[in-house]
Write a structure and sequence with these properties.
chitin deacetylase; membrane; three-stranded parallel β-sheet; TIM Barrel; mainly alpha; 10 strands; hydrolase; binds zinc ion
Length: 502
């Protein structure tokens, strides 16, 4: 079973209108959620009002692909990035925008064979037959799963039996930090969204300098195959944080990623802001994403990334109880999160040159760290994949001194087999719920009290850049009021045509 040419073209033709009809609110959420990437600390300071205009600080090689934005709007942003290399077959940067017509999707070069043995993963079961996946056996796509199902009842019991204490932290409400002033000020809950607080048990970086833990979120999608083909050409492996609903839509692509020795990790079922959910709802989101991955691959991931990075100690505890280690992206200051903002090209909320400027700023900061780093990128939309394969990855590959680009599990110096519950031998990567190893999570018992102080949070000492710490809420994210339920509904509709109709 694979995408036929005709259905792929049909999908490509139908994609833009449906996406355009569905994507508004989540994109708005993303736009304001992520602080823009600040230029490196040693660069000349950026204008205070925006990260979109950065004074020239070029002192190295002349730009390979410098770009200035067209003077069609005010103020005119200027960009000073310079790329060491671009892909000769890259889509022109000027064509990577929200108005770009959808390109024909590329069928997978090969599809995995049911029953194939993942020989690279000692102890892994044979690959299931994705054609047998029945969407009717799963919750509705892109909606929070019901909490009264037998499956969720079992997972709730598992959490209760885990021995992990779930802190009594009230859910937040949509609207981000301004709508949650008390929660934002409550440093004890360690809410990443409002201040960037992390715990030692969060993976926020790679330990070794110049190592890049490559990650892509929100797939699989129509364009994941383009990314996979490029990664194959370059012999690169990545971690993919996949949404359960997308796995239902594209099980073959997930199998290809897995059999290609990329790391598969969980990114919930319907991509909500987890801190806004009840305990049972969080369990349902994580449980169904684990289950559909297990059903398609035969193995269950033991790492997760919270959508929007929205995690606090309650979400951490539930994740731990469900055997999942949180993986964030590197953040060294309120204005220097390692977020390319690539997701927002599709919705027209940022531009391709701005994303490349963000990328160069990330590079400038990354090369100054004593540790490695993790960057937020996505493979849901065509534009994100085009800028990754055409520009960001070629530039990174050409970097001197070179980066070591690898999946998160590998940058943590662990074998790929440690990334799945069934194949983890629990020696180098003790499961978080065991409490016997370094992965044990220490969550302080607490009440949901308001500290009353300034809304300043301290990040945990996971970074070595020395710049983590005090935050202001000036760059606080604000969630779109509608949340992210409609996030991928359009893809689902199309996926029904392209995947399950044959
Ligand atoms: Zn996401």
């Amino acid at each position: 079973m694979k995408l036929s040419t005709s259905s792929a073209l049909l999908a490509a033709a139908s994609f833009p209108a449906l996406v355009a009809a569905c994507h508004g609110d989540p994109h708005v959420a993303r736009q304001v959620h992520h602080a823009r990437q600040a230029p490196p600390a040693s660069s000349a300071p950026a204008p205070a009002s925006s990260g979109s205009s950065v004074p020239s600080a070029a002192s190295g090689a002349p730009p390979a692909s410098g770009v200035s934005a067209p003077a069609s709007s005010t103020p005119v942003p200027t960009f000073t990035y310079s790329l060491l290399s671009t892909n000769p077959t890259a889509v022109p940067l000027s064509s990577i925008n929200s108005a770009a017509p959808s390109s024909a999707t590329r069928p997978l070069d090969s599809t995995a064979t049911p029953g194939a043995t993942p020989s690279f993963l000692p102890g892994a079961p044979p690959l299931p037959n994705a054609a047998l996946l029945l969407p009717s056996n799963y919750p509705a796509l892109d909606k929070p799963p019901p909490t009264d199902s037998p499956e969720v009842a079992q997972w709730k019991q598992d959490v209760a039996n885990s021995g992990v204490t779930i802190p009594d932290i009230a859910p937040t409400v949509l609207g981000g930090c301004p709508a949650n002033a008390a929660a934002a000020a409550d440093t004890s809950r360690c809410w990443w969204t409002c201040g960037g607080c992390t715990r030692d048990t969060d993976v926020t970086e790679c330990p070794t300098r110049m190592e890049w833990g490559l990650t892509y979120d929100d797939g699989p999608s129509f364009y994941t195959s383009d990314l996979l083909n490029y990664l194959d050409q370059q012999n690169l492996k990545s971690t993919f944080f996949v949404v359960g609903s997308r796995v239902i839509s594209f099980p073959n692509i997930l199998q290809t990623q897995y059999m290609g020795q990329h790391q598969i990790a969980a990114h919930t079922w319907s991509h909500p802001s987890l801190t806004t959910l009840s305990n049972d709802e969080i369990i349902a989101e994580l449980g169904w994403s684990k289950k559909v991955i297990k059903d398609v691959l035969g193995v269950t991931p033991n790492m997760m990334r919270p959508p929007f990075g929205d995690i606090d100690d309650r979400v951490r505890a539930i994740s731990k109880a469900m055997g999942l280690t949180p993986v964030m992206w590197t953040r060294i200051s309120p204005l220097a999160t390692f977020d390319t903002d690539d997701f927002n090209i599709h919705g027209g909320l940022t531009s391709a040159p701005q994303v490349l400027q963000n990328w160069e700023n990330i590079l400038g900061n990354a090369t100054k760290l004593d540790s490695g780093f993790i960057v937020l990128e996505h493979d849901l939309f065509q534009q994100s994949v085009e800028i990754a394969t055409g520009y960001i990855l070629p530039d990174a590959i050409a970097h001197e001194p070179s980066f070591s680009i690898k999946p998160v599990i590998a940058c943590l110096n662990k074998p790929l087999s440690d990334a799945y519950i069934e194949t983890n031998d629990n020696t180098t990567n003790p499961p978080p719920v065991s409490g016997t190893g370094s992965a044990a999570l220490s969550i302080p018992s607490q009440t949901n009290e308001v500290s009353g102080g300034s809304p300043t949070l301290s990040s945990s000492a996971t970074g070595s850049a020395g710049t983590k710490g005090a935050d202001s809420n000036s760059a606080a994210p604000v969630f779109g009021a509608a949340g992210s339920v409609a996030f991928g509904a359009s893809i689902i509709a199309l996926a029904g045509l392209t995947v399950f109709s044959m």
